[in-house]
Amino acid sequence: MSEKQPLWLRAGPFLFLFFWSSGYPVSKLGMQYAAPFSFLLLRYGLVLLLLAPMWLWLRPPWPKRPVEWLHIVVVGFLIQTLYFGGCYTAFALGTSSGAVALIASLQPLLVAVLAPFLVGEHTHARGWAGLALGFTGAVVVISAYAQVGHVPLAGIAASVAALFGMTGATLYEKRFGITHHPITANIIQYAVGFLTTLPMALLHFRAAPDPHFIALLVYLVVANSIVSLSLFLAMVRAGQAARVSSLLNLVPPTAALMSWVMLGEPMTLRTWIGMALAGLGVTLARWQKKAS
């Protein structure tokens, strides 16, 4: 069966890993040219311009009930505004993109902690062990970056806010999520991101019309917002969701490695050990989820 899959689909998980991981250092590079919410506003605006003709061509249905609109809007706010806003603010404050990627990757662990209270899912001993390992690994990585001055306290707070945004979106989807056409859902969610970042962007709008910034912006719009989404949906439909889930554990070290190459952020032995501990913790959390 897998032999019949096209080459691009077999390579899909690795392409997804590359594009998703590269979003961290590329976004941080963009902070040289734009303020965080100015950057996001431009990114969301361009994504909407790209999605509009797709919607006009396919004409997928809009949500039928107000409550369905509400659920999509809430998830859009948590991801596009809180998650990405937190990440971009952390980058602007000078936080290592590897540290931001690692903190964001702890989302399965935080879901495991909160799920029993919010969606009635039980956390087994394996999940709690994963939680302990994951957060231990995060502390090790953050302390390693702190030694070379890449972890300001305010940046860690912004990264944690991003983590709670993605975790909240996941838990909200578990409890209230309704399946909609991806183009429709993304248009609504990116529109929410555009409208909610607009006031903050206008308070301090800064975006240099520099060719390097335009190239970074176009890369993020195409690679992260369009190609990554398309790859993910294609892999889910081809039954590769579990493979993608396991490869997500490699996002923090891959992002850190890319940040070392692109930004000169150091990678010490302690950083690698912390990344490994956090990855093992997230893996245990995912395994306990499957077991339940």
Structure overview:
α7 (125-146) packs antiparallel against α13 (269-291). The protein has helices at residues 7-10, 12-30, 36-58, 66-92, 97-105, 107-118, 125-146, 153-176, 182-203, 211-237, 241-247, 251-263, 269-291. It is an all-alpha fold. The longest helix is centred in the N-terminal third of the chain and has 27 residues, at 66-92.
In the predicted model, the low-confidence regions spanning at least 5 consecutive residues are none
Q: Count the beta strands.
A: 0
Helix share bin? over 70%
Distance between the termini: 29 Å
Radius of gyration: 19 Å
Q: Whole-number average pLDDT?
A: 83
Largest sheet: none
Q: How would you sum up this structure in a few lines?
A:
With 292 residues, this protein is mainly α. It is built from 13 helices and no strands.
Give the topology.
Blueprint: H1 7-10, H2 12-30, H3 36-58, H4 66-92, H5 97-105, H6 107-118, H7 125-146, H8 153-176, H9 182-203, H10 211-237, H11 241-247, H12 251-263, H13 269-291
